[in-house]
């Protein structure tokens, strides 16, 4: 079985948690898109792990963790993440971690340009500042370095020279030094070279032998460069097709596409958010759900669940099921709202239009006040919580498979069991 985990809102829905959960029975897990703009949290065995580039399955010794070709890697961040995990007792070695040589490198000038572009803009995106956009842009320009370049033998003073020359043309007052960058690349090679390889044989062999593969998506549909709220998006395609492509697995081989949502919405950075509660309700959701970024520590903007997004995402991603996290959090509110349509140009619509800024949400109100933290079976959920879940299914036409009732992965209810 090949299962894909994708985000359906604006990120931070609990993809890391879901990927780790699914990896219980997997032989390979692949991170497929984005870079260390992602922050994936796993709470397991009484410990909390925060991952930015490593697949969540790195915690499991028996699973192969792959960083796929669609990922952009800041080698310094990866080196320090490997060290942190090793210090936490996680084994990491070349039999367990595999980095695609095709993955692109986030260079120091990408981070600088990311900051400068933000400074320059009157309407800021609120990027994570990790150099993601400039790195993907240079990848598309075909002048960037890939992980393979670190080990190819002819590391490539010439490539570095060309890449730096371009950056230096953009940067007027500060100039990057190609010798310094070369030395940095040599350090990266020393630390990461042993993990860099061709990943296709690992995936093809696992598939041939009927083993389970999990594709761990990052970001989310509404941060997608093509399908999100452009320009308030990231620079990759975290939809299900882009995620499969970033891993290197064809669409017809994928058995399940699991869309991860929270029972409410959050967003970091700028951009439209029709159901945002920029008020006491939003503050309450933020505190109940501890909605502060794993990557930047920024307080997340919070608001009601927007089912118009989820319904559209079900189609764009071809979802086979949903996972609804944070049912414990939202249940603490007495009254919960869900957006079921947008008022737009004098009409009610149930898709996400290009200028979503002009949409006004239409809400359905649900009774909350449930406590689900210690519940293990779907049938034992309070009626109000079941009504909420079943409405999500009816509205979107997608079955809910998993329900998160606490941050610890033990607190997962499998619907239908
Ligand atoms: P990701 O980027 O999609 O992997 O999500 P993050 O890890 O950035 O953010 C999700 C946050 O919600 C993390 O702090 C998780 O530990 C937490 N979380 C996930 N599911 C649940 C849940 O069902 N209940 C609660 N209380 N917390 C959850
Ligand atoms: P995970 O995988 C939440 C957002 C940033 C910003 C926009 C562009 O943890 O869900 P970028 O640095 O990518 O150029 O920033 O995208 N963003 C995320 N928000 N979770 C993420 O990843 C995100 N990755 C990018 O906040 O609004
Ligand atoms: Mg996150």
Compact description:
With 417 residues, the chain is an alpha/beta fold. It contains 13 helices and 20 strands.
- Report low-confidence residues grouped into runs of 5 or more: none
Shape: globular
How are the strands ordered across the major sheet? Answer: 9-7-5-2-10-1-11-15-19-20
Reading off the top of the CATH hierarchy, the class of the largest domain is best stated as Alpha Beta
What's the CATH topology name of the largest domain?
A: Adenylosuccinate Synthetase, Chain A, domain 1
Total count of helical runs of at least 4 residues:
13
Largest sheet: number of strands, sense, barrel closure: 10 strands, mixed
Find the count of extended strands (DSSP E, 2+ residues): 20
Ligands in the model, by name, code or SMILES, are:
guanosine-5'-diphosphate, 6-O-phosphoryl inosine monophosphate, magnesium ion
Which architecture of the largest domain would the CATH scheme give at its second level? 3-Layer(aba) Sandwich
Mean pLDDT: 95
Q: For this structure, what is the CATH homologous superfamily of the largest domain?
A: Adenylosuccinate Synthetase, subunit A, domain 1
Number of domains: 3
What fraction of the residues are assigned to beta strands by DSSP? 15-25%
Which structural class do you get from the secondary structure elements? alpha/beta
Radius of gyration: 21 Å
Percentage of residues assigned to helices: 25-40%
N- to C-terminal separation? 20 Å
Q: Oligomeric state of the chains? A: single chain
